[in-house]
Design a protein that fits this description.
Blueprint (H helix, E strand, L loop, with lengths): L1 H16 L7 H15 L4 H11 L9 H17 L2 E10 L2 E11 L3 E2 L23 E2 L4 E9 L5 H9 L8 E5 L7 H8 L4 E5 L2 H4 L21 E2 L37 E4 L1 H9 L26 E9 L2 E11 L4 E11 L7 H23 L6 E8 L2 H4 L1 H9 L1 H7 E6 L7 E6 L4 H9 L10 H7 L28 H7 L2 E8 L14 H8 L4 H19 L8 H18 L6 H24 L5 H17 L17 E3 L7 E3 L1 H8 L3 H29 L3
Parallel strand pairs: 4-8, 5-6, 6-7, 7-9, 12-13, 12-14, 14-16
Antiparallel strand pairs: 1-11, 2-3, 2-10, 5-10, 11-13, 15-16, 17-18
Helix pairs in contact: 1-2, 2-17, 3-9, 4-9, 9-17, 11-15, 18-19, 19-22, 20-22, 21-22
Length: 701
């Protein structure tokens, strides 16, 4: 026993001696001790209670049930002892009024367009479920031949063109995957298609991958992925108020003026409904890479399958309810660390998003418990439950646009979570926070195998077919942020350094956005025992404690500059000598030099207690991300202003790094690429100025 105790004591001492960025060595042991107390507080059983209450019934944005979930979250924040309130906004939130899909030749078939009840799962019988549809689809009533377009991404249309197959005037049928769903109707419309159907092929998330629900976690034959098809790479939030908050009485565009709405009808269907259309296609046999797992030969068409496809919508403005809780800072109350997760779901939404929302609530309780024991953060912590994320990041965007001036002055970092389940830890975000997150993951363990999150991360390898901008050198690296969750307005529009954190594993997307994403599915397949919900609370609690209390904010610029240099090298392989990168590389060199000077000043500064100088340094540090914003925004989408990260115009969720240069180079628009390179150089120059000022402040100058 003495030997065991000695080993444990030695391990605890070693942990206490691990460095924590932004803290002086004299505070490492105390900070580690506080964190150990904090990570012991989250309880899996409580998260189960939160999830079962919040995901008990369908609670899509704009509904009374969504308002009820917001009130429940508000009540919990207040029960924990936090100052909390609800902020109300509104937005265009379309619900379907009518949906028709039938095959009129060569045989008659009418699609069910409904997910059936599963007898073992009582949640699936709720009468308040939203029908299967794509929000922000165009309306229409069309009859046309059908063409299969694989995943419906630009390269698929390039293949069709080489085969002499024209989709103009046709209804295309694409399978989910490879790109964000909104890309599929967008590209279809650009090529002249008059309608778009999106189905879930069992090769991607059905029986080809494993057993389907209720036996397994994968999508059953009649399962359908709902979802928004807003053109989010243009802008997010209410389509009728781009750039300003949507509140009662505020300015609105007309629907015809809104650029983020799809122009053609688009609807998601199950593979049970897709099968008759695909079976009755003629034309050439689809290439092997286009073939799914359905039991027949895949043909491209067009026809002879001809579809009658009609959609209409109730395009009403509906309410949004954001829940905001605050823990005031003691030393720097006007420096905010913000953590958010959305609360609205397409149906019950147990996995997406309540798994993450329940973890956030338990993080809030843990921080509130520490506060009762005498801890007070040095910086203000803001905890949020957003509404309307599923339709297009509505609640977070409207809140951030309303508070933009205040956020520009005060927001230090935005942390986001969304879905969470068993599996590996995933982390993406601003590269200036890479070393910081590496230390957080070093100090926390996986709940199942006992390895540190960092060890697990460093043993993972990217797929060989990953896009060039997603391939990373060995070791831990934050992934770049694209789109798909509530961090978008913070990093892309306002220039707030951001993180997106969560656990997840393979073959757990089979019930995504369907009626089967409910507490029964989640507790059996998603996170049995809620061990990973508790683990996410440990990650976010530790992250918040360090960001809120570090004497010097834990930004780092050596890894940032190395990463941006890697992005430049990737584009140079594509562009050759057609883009002048010398101004960009010159600024990267200045960042590398400035990073070393900053680190030298940091070694002595973290132990000094000149609050005014530290406040000045910290202000300059979090404004480095602001410096990376482009005054004119990105070409063709000026709502997006970040020079380093953006969702791709045709990838949606997937990030494009150095997006202005990269997308111009990919399109062989060399004059534009060179203009964008100058913009990136100017943005890096602004970052370098903030970095130099932070270094001067730390050095007492």
């Amino acid at each position: 026993m003495k030997i065991i105790l000695a080993v444990l004591a030695s391990a605890a001492l070693a942990a206490a001696q691990e460095p924590i960025r932004g803290f002086p060595e004299s505070e490492w042991a105390a900070e580690h001790a506080l964190e150990q107390k904090a990570i012991a507080l989250p309880q899996a059983a409580r998260q189960k209670t939160y999830l079962e209450r919040m995901a008990k019934v369908p609670h899509h944005a704009g509904s009374a049930a969504s308002a009820s979930v917001a009130e429940y979250g508000l009540g919990l924040f207040k029960e924990f002892g936090l100052d909390a309130h609800i902020e109300n906004y509104e937005a265009l939130i379309p619900y379907p009024a009518s949906r028709t899909l039938e095959m009129v030749s060569p045989v008659r078939f009418r699609a069910a367009l409904k997910e059936p009840v599963i007898s073992q799962d009582p949640y699936t019988s709720d009468a308040t479920q939203l029908p299967t549809y794509n929000a922000y689809s165009g309306a229409g009533d069309i009859t046309a031949p059908v063409i299969y377009v694989n995943y419906g991404v630009p390269e698929d249309y390039e293949y069709l063109a080489k085969q002499g197959i024209d989709v103009k005037g046709k209804i295309v049928i694409a399978r989910y995957g490879k790109s964000w769903r909104g890309t599929k109707p967008k590209v279809a419309a650009e090529h002249g298609a008059v309608g778009c159907l999106i189905y879930s092929d069992p090769r991607d998330d059905g029986y080809f991958q494993g057993d389907v629900y209720p036996k397994g976690a994968l999508r059953p034959p009649d399962g359908v992925q709902r979802g928004s098809v807003m053109d989010m790479p243009l802008y997010v939030g209410d389509p009728l108020s781009p750039g300003w908050a949507s509140e009662p009485g505020s300015k609105r565009l007309s629907i015809s003026e809104a650029k983020s709405l799809m122009t053609i009808p688009v609807m998601p269907i199950s593979y049970a409904d897709a099968t008759p259309f695909l079976e009755h296609l003629g034309g050439p046999v689809a290439p092997e890479s286009w073939r799914g797992a359905l039991g027949f030969t895949y043909h491209i068409g067009p026809g002879p399958a001809t579809a009658h496809f009609a959609l209409s919508f109730d395009n009403s403005t509906r309410p949004l309810h954001d829940v905001i809780a605050t823990i005031p800072g003691s030393t720097y109350p006007d420096q905010w660390v913000i953590y958010g997760n959305h609360h609205d779901g397409w149906v019950n939404g147990a996995h997406d998003p309540i798994s993450g929302a329940a973890s956030l609530l338990e993080t809030a309780r843990a921080l509130a418990e520490l506060r009762k024991q005498g801890w007070q953060p040095k910086r203000t912590i803001v905890l949020t439950l957003w509404d309307g994320e599923e339709f297009g990041l509505l609640g977070s965007t409207e809140w951030a646009e309303k508070h933009a001036d205040e956020l520009n002055r005060k927001a230090v970092v935005y942390i986001n979570s969304d879905t969470n389940s068993k599996g590996a830890m995933g982390a993406s975000g601003s590269h200036t926070l890479e070393i910081f997150m590496k230390e957080v993951m070093r100090d926390l363990k996986d709940p199942q195998n006992g390895k540190t999150l960092l060890e697990i991360s460093q043993t993972r390898r990217d797929r060989g077919d990953a896009p060039a901008e997603e391939r990373l050198p060995p070791g831990f690296h934050l992934g770049p942020l694209g789109a798909g969750s509530d961090y978008v307005v913070f990093i892309d529009h306002l220039g707030v350094a951001s993180l997106n954190l969560g656990f997840g594993g393979p073959n757990l997307n089979g019930v995504y956005h369907s009626i089967y994403d409910d507490p029964r599915w989640f507790e059996e397949f998603g996170d049995p025992g809620f061990a990973y919900g508790a683990a996410l609370s440990q990650v976010t609690t530790t992250t918040l404690l360090r960001l809120a209390d570090a004497p010097v904010l834990p930004f780092e610029f050596g890894e940032f500059s190395a990463t941006v240099r890697r992005y430049v090298d990737q584009i140079k392989k594509l562009s050759g000598t057609k883009v002048d990168f010398e101004p960009v590389l010159a600024e990267i060199q200045k960042t590398e030099t400035g990073a070393k000077a900053f680190e030298a000043a940091l070694k002595t500064a973290v132990s000094q207690r000149d609050t005014a100088l530290l406040a000045k340094a910290n202000q300059e540090l979090f404004e480095t991300e602001r410096g990376l914003m482009l005054a004119k925004g990105l070409p063709g989408r000026d709502w997006y202003r970040h020079s380093i990260y953006a969702p791709g115009m045709y990838t949606g969720y997937g990030a494009k790094t150095l997006p202005g240069i990269r997308e111009a180079a990919e399109g062989a628009r060399w004059e534009e690429a060179n203009a964008e390179a100058k913009g990136v150089a100017q943005a890096l120059e602004q970052l370098n100025q903030h970095l130099e000022q932070a270094t001067r402040a730390l050095a007492g100058r």
